[in-house]
Amino acid sequence: MIVAESIILIAQIYCVIGLIVALAFITIGLGRIELAARGAFLFRLQIIPGLILLWPIVIARWVALERSGEKILLDKEEAELHKEQEGKK
Q1: Model confidence at 83: pLDDT above 90
Q2: How many Å apart are CA 48 and CA 41, to the nearest integer?
Q3: Could you give the count of Cα atoms lying within 13 Å of 15 in the half-sphere of its Cβ?
């Protein structure tokens, strides 16, 4: 019985950490990594279960993207997109 309880406790801790990472990624990280997801609020809700299960991979990829400087490229793309939208008005 102790082994089963330990496994359940570990799974619960894993899921709680996953939920915290998922909420942080959805509110902060997703918009910084993917420009197309900035206004997609229903999409954010749909990816929560996957983020909870794959949180170690999400953290590794998020950190790698932030360190690599791809965020700078995304910021430049966003600025160009805003210029194009303003030009259409």
Answers
A1: no
A2: 11
A3: 7
